[in-house]
Amino acid sequence: MIIFPAIDIRGGKCVRLEEGRFDRETVFAENPLDAARRWVEAGTQWLHIVDLDGARAGKPVNLPAISEIARTFDVKVQLGGGIRTLETAEQVLAAGVNRLILGSVAARSPELVEQLCSRYGEKIVIGIDARDGEVAVDGWEKSGLLRVEELALRMKQVGAKRIIYTDISRDGMLTGVNVDSTLQLARQSGLAVIASGGVKGIEDILALRPLTPEGVEGVIIGKALYTGAIALADALRVASGGEV
């Protein structure tokens, strides 16, 4: 199982939000490069980066900082936030990003997702963020467009292979990952699913690890790493089958 340390960037800083609310923000690093260095030195092979400003603006805002991370460290980067056109996708990949996370555009423009999946294949990941089973878009400020499982099946039809599923009500809250909904989505969609939102401790890793054969291939960890609730080295060891 893959561990993805999260780096959320807003105003050029590494922050964490609670329940996706911009008015409930904590700054954990003035420079996202410092956060990236910390996780790379701990042994991660992936970073999950979200351009929060880009999610609201509809186009990447912090791409220079993200490109610096991608080019400075020997690590793979998946990026979400404001990737809503073919031109933007090309720009982000040229900046050194390995995977593009399509969120709002997946709900609104399946034809563009199909085009991007056809062109870039495994480099495309669908970000499905939800409240009470309903998809949220535009930096999590709008919801109710459609149900999670409906969007997942639509994305499968247009060629997507992988989903990041975030339970917004748990994100940044340290209340535990939504294991049941994550597993249900993997089973219903037949797609690989990365869990996100609410991870609070090693027990979440232990709960998700046996689900790898069911299609749950990884988990994104944010606040639990920054607060010290989980040591990344421990999470990586347990995720690879090691003991607690």
What does this structure look like?
The chain is an alpha/beta fold. The chain has one domain: Aldolase class I (TIM Barrel, Alpha-Beta Barrel), CATH 3.20.20. Helix content is 37%, strand content 30%. The chain is built from eleven helices and twelve strands. It has helices spanning 32-41, 52-57, 63-72, 86-94, 104-108, 110-120, 148-157, 179-189, 202-208, 223-226, 232-239, and strands at 2-10, 13-18, 21-29, 46-51, 76-80, 99-102, 124-131, 134-137, 142-147, 162-167, 192-196, 216-221. Strands 1-4-5-6-7-10-11-12 form an eight-stranded parallel β-barrel, surrounded by seven helices. A hairpin with a 2-residue loop joins β7 and β8 (134-137). α1 packs parallel to α3. The longest helix is centred in the middle third of the chain and has 11 residues, at 110-120.
Short description:
This protein is of the alpha/beta class and 244 residues long.
List keywords for this structure.
11 helices, 12 strands, 244 residues, TIM Barrel, alpha/beta
